[in-house]
Prior knowledge:
Oligomer: homodimer
Distance between the termini of chain A: 64 Å
Order of helices and strands of chain A: HHHHEHEHEHEEHEHEHEHEHEHEE
CATH architecture of the largest domain in chain A: 3-Layer(aba) Sandwich
Structural class of chain A: alpha/beta
Number of helices of chain A: 13
Largest interface: A-B, 60 and 60 residues
CATH topology of the largest domain in chain A: Rossmann fold
CATH superfamily of the largest domain in chain A: Response regulator
Number of domains of chain A: 3
Strand order of the largest sheet of chain A: 2-1-3-4-5-11
Shape of chain A: elongated
Radius of gyration of chain A: 25 Å
Amino acid sequence: xxxxxxxxxxxxxxxxxxxxxxxxxxxxxxxxxxxxxxxxxxxxxxxxxxxxxxxxxxxxxxxxxxxxxxxxxxxxxxxxxxxxxxxxxxxxxxxxxxxxxxxxxxxxxxxxxxxxxxxxxxxxxxxxxxxxxxxxxxxxxxxxxxxxxxxxxxxxxxxxxxxxxxxxxxxxxxxxxxxxxxxxxxxxxxxxxxxxxxxxxxxxxxxxxxxxxxxxxxxxxxxxxxxxxxxxxxxxxxxxxxxxxxxxxxxxxxxxxxxxxxxxxxxxxxxxxxxxxxxxxxxxxxxxxxxxxxxxxxxxxxxxxxxxxxxxxxxxxxxxxxxxxxxxxxxxxxxxxx
Amino acid sequence: xxxxxxxxxxxxxxxxxxxxxxxxxxxxxxxxxxxxxxxxxxxxxxxxxxxxxxxxxxxxxxxxxxxxxxxxxxxxxxxxxxxxxxxxxxxxxxxxxxxxxxxxxxxxxxxxxxxxxxxxxxxxxxxxxxxxxxxxxxxxxxxxxxxxxxxxxxxxxxxxxxxxxxxxxxxxxxxxxxxxxxxxxxxxxxxxxxxxxxxxxxxxxxxxxxxxxxxxxxxxxxxxxxxxxxxxxxxxxxxxxxxxxxxxxxxxxxxxxxxxxxxxxxxxxxxxxxxxxxxxxxxxxxxxxxxxxxxxxxxxxxxxxxxxxxxxxxxxxxxxxxxxxxxxxxxxxxxxxx
DNA sequence: TTCGCCAGAGATAACGATAACAAAATGGTA
DNA sequence: TACCATTTTGTTATCGTTATCTCTGGCGAA
Lengths: 338, 338
């Protein structure tokens, strides 16, 4: 089934096609000047030998890998997956491939990952950013390639930024509830600072409540981030048990919000009649569950798309200094809130 | 912010540490014989220079990349994400990194992808398998590395297999319904053969119905695979409109099944009282939605874990011939069915 | 004392493509 | 026909690490 003999190289193809290895190399590039006759002869020879281009050699000699390194907290998250898809589509046309790694929401793991990725000499690196270990930061600063932080607006960014303010996004939700007369608002989130974005959302909730002169203490800790649907449901149970006069609850993600919704269903608690529920992320489920879920769409696909464009501009030299692209998340009013 | 000067190499580190480049190389390996004093001096020198190991050169010279290529249909799918996580964890201890690509459920795209991945000279390749273009098959056969097909049990595998029978899994669901006296069963799936596993599930449904002497024609085409929650809901609407005497419906995935459930909620159709609903995948949502969803757990994490073990065994030479590991998906009886 | 063994370190060449430069072939024009 | 511009092809050296072989010094056993 497999071929034990050594894989053919360009030299083998060149010999068979009666040209020099350099011409074979050119034939495998797009725009290189090779006559049609020669190129097809070469491709035919390559095909008959079962030749597969070896990018390890190409990478070393040309000092280009056509990799863009991307770190995301979790592979199992539709929002980050959308960002990766946006990136991937934007980079594909230029022949750039994504080298993906996930940090499991752990900045120590992120440090290991970033170092591993940089060893592969990517053309650029995209991190789901905000906070990182000092060493990670140093690695990024000295990497000598474009660095893009996403999903956040860091105070002191390493390089470029394509993101949004998690705190401001949650504030807009609080403002919305207050504008319709709701004042007793709770927040369901993680019980640790592992997930920096989740932490920012909770901080945004507290700040917004205080800005309205409201009590920001209805905080339900739902477990180690990221919070699952089940943990969201459990947290909602505790909220209904301990603070039954709560009028609305904002959840750190749509998944926990959906879990919370199901707990209300199980208990016969009417949403939004007795309590309003809001999420974050605008996952597909938010639009289709019953009642549909009020949430915030942080434009994950757009983040990826803009990051890809930015990378291409920087690599082309079109983009000079560090850019910060701040996106405006969209409040999606649906049935789970008034 | 970035360093315009050329990145330091092992030679620079060697000079600063007062040793030969070869010794630096050894110091960066695990088991290589370097005295502790020398090693720490080298690492210190490397750190002070901001040296980052260059694997492009290492890859070429050592003919090893420590990549395992993995293709999945979609990055935005919790089942495949679980398989990737299982793979990733199993390979990490050996220093193998995953090079991930997705095919968008398109075998032409898969062909392009497989070729791109093979150019990077991975140590092994894992495909979400079953059917591929002739050229893809040829590329895999001649790649000279272990090939693992997953999520399927192909009739004529390229190499190794870690999967299950999609048809048999759906048959078990049909058998379950028949065993509780349900005979008018429908199937909601895609309207094209793009998704080979979805197609197998539909074929399994038809065969199982025929085996029981039942009518297999209650087939609802829900759109281009993969079917979304929304498309599942629309399909359920059509089913209720056109075949209102249907007693149960099996959906090609949990996502479409959940969409179908929500449509029942919207119409006030009782599940499972008026109609039973089943899905496929055992996504988290299946366990928590109301009513919870009867489904099939295909053990996605286990697939990844076993595939990783198999790869390590093959690379070690422990595993001789091509292996086929057939897993048994688990029928999860929940509230959406009797 | 001699020999063998081994840990620790160095010297050399090579992995397979391509950047950079050079030369030959081609085509159009004066 | 001669000449220049352009296209097409070839030659040489090299990217940064490491496989492989060699060498040195120290230590224990005979």
